[in-house]
């Protein structure tokens, strides 16, 4: 399941965006949970005070209080793996977000033209991350999403698979695992 945040102070637009995202994820058979926030302070507080780990956050740049750019900067200091997508009427602000690791930028005046293309691109990336790989663990085979695997460790001829929630010890040969787009360090 992908955890998505939307930080937008225009409630009507927020609900339209939420509906578009839910519809697209449903069409692609991907599970998502969407949390809505109306200010940068609100989403930062949620991240600091809960155990929610966002995968994707959509930001309006112009927010009351801390703007979307500063909010994203603060959040990226806490977790730099989150995918950021900015949405705004302020086209000139696109250059201010280029120093952040952003996935894309949607101009509100072109929202209906751009949202489907950007969600399709996002889904393609997420489907790759959601692909499951088999690993023998003991006498059973478990299936892990690439997205959930943090890193693999070779220790005493066993592969330890470190995931977001737990670690698994596999008797897989490390050379078999390496061809699946892993970096060997």
From TrEMBL:
The protein depicted here goes by the name CheY chemotaxis protein or a CheY-like REC (Receiver) domain
> Which molecular-function annotations from GO does this UniProt entry contain?
DNA binding; phosphorelay response regulator activity
What keywords are assigned to this protein?
Answer: Phosphoprotein
Domain Response regulatory spans what residues?
3-123
Tell me the InterPro entries matching this sequence. CheY-like_superfamily, LytR-like, Sig_transdc_resp-reg_receiver
- Pfam families per UniProt: Response_reg (PF00072)
- CDD domains, per this entry? REC
Which segments cross the bilayer?
Answer: none
Where are the 4-aspartylphosphate residues found in this chain?
60
**Is Transmembrane helix among this UniProt entry's keywords?**
no
- Which SUPFAM superfamilies does this one have? CheY-like (SSF52172)
- Has the keyword Iron been applied to this entry? no
Q: Which organism is it from?
A: Tepidimicrobium xylanilyticum
